[in-house]
Design a protein that fits this description.
Helix content: 40-55%
Strand content: 5-15%
Number of domains: 3
Radius of gyration: 35 Å
Shape: elongated
Distance between the termini: 64 Å
Largest sheet: 5 strands, antiparallel
Length: 696
């Protein structure tokens, strides 16, 4: 008894003393987490050293830097605030101390599920959003988390060194396997490839699959009659519904502008939108300028089988969509929700695409007025941006086009005449190519457009891609678009409000070109689709206001200069620090509650597993003792036979057989049934009393 008392006393004294290992691991955990956060978002501590920036200034400094990073990498638009300091050293120091205190509690408790709070954000950011920390920061975090998890199983002396050796052994083995498989067929995929595949799987789970593959020119399912969109219109009309919009052709695939490109244009579009100009609703503005007074109607879209990532919008769009969607520099719309755009409603004009040549000519000849001058000023800013972003033709593409279609044509006024260019593209594609949907992927990985020019056959994605490059070759801005068609056949016999089912086979690819002063218009260049949609009459007049004229108009207008600064920057908010602290505190409490619940659940599952293992021990005596001890702890009544078996197993050396174990387990099952019956009876009595009370 004296030895046992001394041992307990030593244990209590040891618990009271701060443990150096726990302190080091807590500091390493918080430092690793902060370093992963800082390096993943490419953040810096700025100027001022360890105590620089102040508390609020440091917070705003970090926030604004993170906003710039996320804007440039993911086109995530966050509000930026004024009043930021030149650094964030003091803020980071305080955050590190607070995290270290929280980490100390986690490590000291020995409950390893809490360590997931550090690892889940790290892996989620890398896999889902492709935000990757520096290797040294990730190594520090993983080592600290691993060591904290195995700390109870390591001796106090040399514990950190042992954990480090184990981690290095595991890392070296993984690296060796990867290097051994490198260069071999069927080699293990890299972390980047795995991240890409998982990201694609998550995208498909969120939004569904796109039959076109978002700019890929590979074969698709053309004959599927599965419903893609269910549409209701106040005035049924044929429309082009645009989704994915590609600007750059690279490695056989169309890509939108980089997120950095969209983010850098945010200031321009912020001011244009304040002036009432939008590239997505340009036809509505022209309709107002020409005083056509067309009846506005609504179109309701239910996504039944199409990709929910995009909000499929017509060129005749009026105002904004409902619910709000994310506009990518007025080139296309994506869904704002987590699972995409399932249902949405838009206000539209009647089909103006079939009349755009005459409307463009009427706009060009209209006498200048205040509204028209304002529109042309805004359009000139937008015009220059479109020429810069959507006129790129690489040297190899220019050489390919020159070999096939000849010279670039007369571009003295900025580009080839619209009518001449459109006719040349359509006639050349119609006379020299065969439309076919049976396209096999090239075995030698030849570029799809080059293969299209060589084989002289392809489908709409190839026609559209070739047309975009040809229009750019002629000096006209052009983009590649994928979307769905509402054809005259689809709306035949439909009354207002009738359901119009658009099959997946209506998925289509087409080029759109920018008409100076008018905006983006879709063009049909695939002969098989000439009769499916109403085509504009190009003989009614197309004027050639070239890019050079738009540039002169842009330089001539001095009524307003757009400043490319942070348009969303707001004045310093005195309560921003307290708001951030309260938000972080609320998130901490939520995460702690979740982690506590997970830890309790894991603890309970582990206890159940341990109890089940003890009840099934190979030694019947140990099994009977385990059942007997557990039943005594629950303070349940025993039968006389069960009590005798339990006492004999616990306090005597008599032999305990399998029969005794079976009887004890039967007693355990009886006890469970009785407890269940009592709970059910208590619940039934309460319900009956409540029912009687309500009747009384």
């Amino acid at each position: 008894m004296q030895l046992q008392s001394i041992r307990h006393k030593r244990e209590r004294e040891q618990v009271k003393k701060p443990q150096l290992l726990v302190l080091l691991l807590s500091a390493a955990l918080s430092a690793g987490f902060l370093c992963c956060f800082m390096t993943g978002l490419n953040l810096t501590a700025g100027k001022g050293g360890l105590l620089g920036g102040g508390l609020k200034g440091g917070l705003l400094f970090l926030w604004n830097e993170a906003a710039d990073f996320l804007g440039n990498t993911h086109f995530l638009l966050l509000t930026k605030y004024q009043g930021a300091g030149e650094g964030c050293g003091l803020f980071l120091l305080i955050v590190w101390l607070l995290l270290s205190a929280v980490s100390y509690g986690f490590v000291r408790s020995g409950k390893w599920p809490f360590l997931l709070l550090y690892l889940i954000p790290f892996f989620a950011a890398q896999i889902l959003w492709d935000i990757r920390s520096q290797p040294w920061a990730a190594a520090l975090l993983l080592w600290a988390a691993f060591t904290a998890a195995v700390r109870p199983r390591l001796s106090e002396s040399g514990g950190i060194l042992a954990a480090l050796l184990l981690l290095l052994l595991a890392g070296g083995t993984a690296a060796g396997v990867t290097l051994a498989a490198a260069g071999e067929e069927g080699a293990l995929p890299s972390a980047e490839a795995l991240s890409g595949r998982l990201h694609q799987a998550v995208e498909e789970a969120r939004f569904g699959t796109n039959p076109r593959g978002d700019g890929s020119l590979q074969p698709a399912d053309f004959d599927s009659q599965e419903t893609a969109l269910e549409i209701k219109m106040e005035t049924p009309d044929s429309l082009y519904l645009k989704g994915f919009t590609g600007s750059r052709y690279k490695d056989g695939h169309w890509e939108p502008l980089s997120c950095s490109g969209y983010y850098q244009q945010n200031a321009l579009f912020y001011w244009l939108h304040r002036e009432g100009f939008s590239g997505l609703s340009q036809m509505e503005q022209i309709e107002q300028l020409l005083q056509k007074k067309g009846e506005h109607g609504s179109i309701s879209v239910k996504n039944a089988g199409a990709c929910r990532k995009y909000v499929y919008a017509p060129y005749e769009l009026v105002g904004k969509t409902e619910p709000a969607a994310k506009s990518w520099s007025d080139s296309f719309l994506t869904a704002a929700g987590l699972s995409g755009a399932a249902e949405y409603r838009m206000e539209t004009l009647p089909n103006m695409v079939k009349e755009w040549p005459s409307l463009a000519a009427e706009l060009f000849t209209k006498k200048a007025g205040e509204e028209l001058s304002r529109y042309r000023t805004n359009e000139s800013h937008y015009n220059v941006r479109m020429y810069e972003d959507y006129s790129e033709v690489t040297d190899s593409q220019r050489k390919l086009l020159a070999e096939n279609i000849g010279r670039e044509g007369n571009q003295d006024k900025g580009h080839v005449d619209y009518k001449q260019a459109i006719s040349a593209v359509q006639v050349w594609l119609e006379e020299n190519f065969i439309y076919t949907e049976r396209i096999r992927e090239s075995e030698d990985k030849e570029d799809p457009v080059e293969e299209f020019f060589r084989s002289k056959k392809g489908c709409d994605v190839h026609y559209a891609s070739a047309a975009v490059l040809m229009f750019r070759y002629y000096g006209i801005p052009a983009r590649y678009v994928e979307g769905y068609l509402i054809t005259p056949e689809d709306i035949e016999g439909k009354e207002p409000g009738d359901l119009i089912s658009i099959p997946r086979s209506n998925n289509h690819a087409w080029p759109e070109i920018y008409i100076d002063s008018f905006g983006w218009v879709p063009l049909e260049v695939t002969p098989e689709y000439y009769d499916r949609m109403e085509q504009p009459d190009l003989s009614k007049g197309l004027e050639n206001q070239g890019a050079s004229d738009a540039q002169k108009d842009y330089d001539r207008q001095n009524t307003r200069q757009y400043v490319y600064t942070d348009p969303e920057s707001r004045p310093e908010d005195e309560s921003i620090l307290w708001k951030a602290i309260l938000l972080l505190a609320a998130l901490d409490l939520l995460v702690l509650a979740l982690a506590y619940g997970i830890a309790k659940l894991i603890q309970k599952l582990a206890y159940l597993r341990k109890r089940r293992k003890a009840f099934g021990d190979a030694d019947p005596r140990k099994a009977v003792c385990a059942v007997y001890t557990y039943m005594r702890a629950l303070k349940v009544p025993f039968t006389r036979a069960a009590r005798e078996i339990g006492n004999r197993a616990a306090y005597s050396k008599c032999e305990i057989s399998e029969t005794d174990r079976s009887r004890m387990l039967e007693e355990w099952e009886r006890m469970k049934r009785e407890r269940h019956e009592k709970k059910r009876n208590r619940s039934g009595v309460g319900t009956a009393a409540g029912a009687d009370g309500s009747r009384l």
